[in-house]
Amino acid sequence: MPNTTAPAPDAVAEVPKLSAESLLEAGFHFGHRTSRWDPRMKQYIRDKKNGIHIIDLKQSLRGMIRAKHFLRNLVSTGAKVVFVGTKKQAKDIVRVEAERALQAFVSERWLGGTLTNFPTIKRRLSRLEKLESLESSGALAKMPKKMQAVVNRERKKILNNLEGLRRLDNLPSALVIVDAHMEHTAILEARKLGVPVVAIVDTDSNPEFVDIVIPGNDDSVRGIQIVLHTLADGCLEGRRMHEQGKGMEMKKGLGIVGYDDAAPKQRDDRRGNRMGGRGGPGGGNTRRRGPRSEEESAETEAATKEAVEAATAQAEPAPAPTVRTKPRAQKKPDAAAPAAEAKAEAKPEAKKE
């Protein structure tokens, strides 16, 4: 595949308008080598040249327009969107465009369970706020230096992974993903929870799990910038509609149910439960009985008295241990010494002879 990778463009640089010519200049039509393709991307491929698949830019434009209208209608209802792109070519653009659209983003690493285990993510974000409050209040400066290092290390770790998700109060209503192949974990979590996915899909990826496919080169920095800039504009249009109060009409038409609109779950006041709670099958009978008889009271008092006596006996100091010393062993005479002396005396006699 041609090398279309370039340094991330500056946030202030002017982004070209969405058109087939701008995408063509950005190299958005180049796919992967034909040996690495996924057959499920066949409908989005126009041709192949020099062993490289050429993506149909008409399909790319159609996917971008659909995605922009979808995000505009979705954000107009007050819903939140998460921009996801952790590869080197996309992380800076994802951060810039998500912040411009006032949406959440993930640009460093997608933690497993970000959606399916969202309560844990919320706890970590609340922990981050607590650590930042320690620093702002001056309490961190009064701690020992070792404790300051531990707190700063924990704060930086949480900030690095979850900084972009601080805008989320609940689960997002959609994901915008760069490189469906690399972010397959995020797509699977969204699919499990029924969250729609908009993604840039290259010829080596599976488009079946993506709701709105934008076929294109996910390594083209300029192409990624054009796509995300267009989608961020759609989010901004939806936000303006929401501020004007025009989004609630679309909410019913799209069939969107926000997490804050869902009816609260009724509390289950039954005493038994599956884990053997109060009166449950595993917890035994905990109902209050009538007054005890005199015999039961006498047995209880006797057992209590025995327990008190045993505890008192254990509390008494134990006698000092008796230390037994072994008698010192006497050294045995060496039986080999006389024989060695006799041998030494015999050697000079042999020399004289």
Task: Report how far apart the termini are.
Answer: 102 Å
Helix content: 40-55%
Radius of gyration: 38 Å
CATH class of the domain at 20-110 and 171-254: Alpha Beta
Q: Which structural class best describes the helix and strand composition?
A: alpha/beta
Describe the global form: extended
**How much of the sequence is in beta strands?**
5-15%
Counting DSSP H or I runs of 4 or more residues, the number of helices is 10
Write the CATH architecture name of the domain at 20-110 and 171-254: 3-Layer(aba) Sandwich
Major sheet characteristics: 5 strands, parallel
Major sheet strand order: 5-4-6-7-8
The count of DSSP E runs of length 2 or more, i.e. the number of strands, is 8
Q: Could you name the CATH topology of the domain at 20-110 and 171-254?
A: Rossmann fold
CATH superfamily of the domain at 20-110 and 171-254: Glucose-6-phosphate isomerase like protein, domain 1
The run of helices and strands is HEEEHEHEHHEHEEHHHH
Mean pLDDT metric? 78
Q: Which consecutive residue ranges, at least 5 long each, have pLDDT under 50? A: 1-12, 257-288
